[in-house]
Structure formats: C-alpha cells, structure tokens
C-alpha cells in the first residue's frame, strides 16, 4: 500500500481527472460536476480538450507551477477506470499522482472536501477507477451535491440537473472547487484541507 504523500506526485507530472457522463443529455447533471470543474481548469491553463487514444479528452498545461494532464473520460461514469488507467499509463503518472474530481452525495451542496485514498463510498466512478488502477490510493476532490429530497432514488437524483437555486451559485462553486485542486497541487493536501474544509 502506498504511503500518503502531502503533494500529489511530488515533483512529477500529475493527472487531473473530472468524472461525468458524455453527451449533451447529461451536460448539466449533478453527476457531471467533475467535467464542469475540469472545464474551468482547462480555461485556466489556456487549453482545449482534444480526443486522446486513452479514451479520454485531454489538455496539457501548467497549473500551480506543475505539469498537469487534465482528462475527462469519454466513457460512462460506471466504466471510467479504463480511460483513467490508460491515460495514467500513457503519461506515466503513478496512482498517487492522480487527482479525481467528483460529485459527493454525503456533503452539503457546494462544499468541497479533499482526501487521499479510501473506499468508493458507493460511487461507481471511483470504484471503476480503483479497480482499473489496482489501488484506491489516489487523491479525491469531492464536490458536495447534497442528498435527494424525500424518497427520491439517489441514482435518479445524480442524473438530474442542478436546481434553479443551485445554479445561481454553481459558477462560484465550480471556481471554488478549481481553486481547491490548484491549492492541492501547489501547497499540498494538509494546506488545502485547512483552507477549504472550513467553508
């Protein structure tokens, strides 16, 4: 088992992964927040996503002074692992140099939490990635989407668009999550947790 590092892939190129489902039908879904945050990060590095043979769309650039590969798997969420593992192999990034941005039901809407390793917590995208990499020892940046109202099935909730109220704050929250990724790369996990876990 890998020893936790405070900075992802210290000194090496990092792989930033945003989870979502491809296609216009899913664009505004809560489950696609990873894609939305990666779009913001791509804008910050001044790049445009292009199809890559790994099965992801990829942008390369500098973020927080680090060489970063930004990747959005073009497979469905439940089978994200293949493209992520493919990109990691191609760009020679070890598991502890990977940062996955994803939605999190168990956090209030708009909150951001960072961690290293752990289980999938019922998230099929994380499960697929851990299976394909052979380890869960990668970084996660979790964007809170809250719990479904009433008796709504969580599987239905994550595939619905953000509410009108949520959309008012969405751009700000995407910026916040992108800031958290940047701080994780530049200053490490503890510093990023100290900054963003208090919000």
Automatic annotation (TrEMBL):
<keyword id="KW-0694">RNA-binding</keyword>
<keyword id="KW-0963">Cytoplasm</keyword>
<dbReference type="InterPro" id="IPR036416">
    <property type="entry name" value="Pept_tRNA_hydro_sf"/>
</dbReference>
<keyword id="KW-0820">tRNA-binding</keyword>
<dbReference type="GO" id="GO:0072344">
    <property type="term" value="P:rescue of stalled ribosome"/>
</dbReference>
<feature type="site" description="Discriminates between blocked and unblocked aminoacyl-tRNA">
    <location>
        <position position="21"/>
    </location>
</feature>
<dbReference type="GO" id="GO:0004045">
    <property type="term" value="F:peptidyl-tRNA hydrolase activity"/>
</dbReference>
<feature type="binding site">
    <location>
        <position position="76"/>
    </location>
    <ligand>
        <name>tRNA</name>
    </ligand>
</feature>
<feature type="binding site">
    <location>
        <position position="26"/>
    </location>
    <ligand>
        <name>tRNA</name>
    </ligand>
</feature>
<comment type="similarity">
    <text>Belongs to the PTH family.</text>
</comment>
<comment type="subunit">
    <text>Monomer.</text>
</comment>
<dbReference type="Pfam" id="PF01195">
    <property type="entry name" value="Pept_tRNA_hydro"/>
</dbReference>
<feature type="binding site">
    <location>
        <position position="78"/>
    </location>
    <ligand>
        <name>tRNA</name>
    </ligand>
</feature>
<dbReference type="GO" id="GO:0005737">
    <property type="term" value="C:cytoplasm"/>
</dbReference>
<comment type="function">
    <text>Catalyzes the release of premature peptidyl moieties from peptidyl-tRNA molecules trapped in stalled 50S ribosomal subunits, and thus maintains levels of free tRNAs and 50S ribosomes.</text>
</comment>
<dbReference type="GO" id="GO:0000049">
    <property type="term" value="F:tRNA binding"/>
</dbReference>
<keyword id="KW-0378">Hydrolase</keyword>
<dbReference type="InterPro" id="IPR018171">
    <property type="entry name" value="Pept_tRNA_hydro_CS"/>
</dbReference>
<dbReference type="InterPro" id="IPR001328">
    <property type="entry name" value="Pept_tRNA_hydro"/>
</dbReference>
<feature type="site" description="Stabilizes the basic form of H active site to accept a proton">
    <location>
        <position position="103"/>
    </location>
</feature>
<comment type="function">
    <text>Hydrolyzes ribosome-free peptidyl-tRNAs (with 1 or more amino acids incorporated), which drop off the ribosome during protein synthesis, or as a result of ribosome stalling.</text>
</comment>
<feature type="active site" description="Proton acceptor">
    <location>
        <position position="31"/>
    </location>
</feature>
<protein>
    <recommendedName>
        <fullName>Peptidyl-tRNA hydrolase</fullName>
        <ecNumber>3.1.1.29</ecNumber>
    </recommendedName>
</protein>
<feature type="binding site">
    <location>
        <position position="124"/>
    </location>
    <ligand>
        <name>tRNA</name>
    </ligand>
</feature>
<dbReference type="GO" id="GO:0006515">
    <property type="term" value="P:protein quality control for misfolded or incompletely synthesized proteins"/>
</dbReference>
């Amino acid at each position: 088992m890998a020893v936790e590092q405070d900075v992802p892939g210290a000194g090496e190129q990092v792989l930033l992964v945003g989870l979502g489902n491809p296609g216009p039908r899913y664009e505004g879904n809560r489950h696609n927040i990873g894609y939305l945050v990666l779009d913001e990060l791509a804008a910050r590095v001044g790049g445009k996503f292009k199809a890559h043979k790994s099965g992801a769309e990829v942008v390369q650039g500098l973020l927080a002074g680090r060489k970063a590969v930004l990747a959005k798997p073009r497979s469905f969420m439940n089978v994200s692992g293949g493209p992520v593992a493919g990109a990691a192999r191609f760009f020679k990034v070890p598991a502890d140099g990977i940062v996955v941005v994803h939605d999190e039901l168990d956090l209030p809407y708009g909150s951001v939490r960072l961690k290293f390793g752990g289980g999938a917590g019922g998230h099929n995208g994380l499960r697929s990635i851990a299976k394909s990499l052979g380890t869960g020892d990668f970084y996660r940046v979790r964007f809170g989407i809250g719990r479904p109202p009433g008796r709504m099935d969580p599987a239905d909730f994550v595939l619905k668009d953000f509410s009108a109220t949520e959309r008012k704050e969405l751009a700000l929250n995407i910026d916040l999550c992108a800031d958290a990724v940047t701080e994780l790369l530049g200053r490490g996990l503890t510093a990023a947790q100290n900054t963003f876990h208090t919000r």
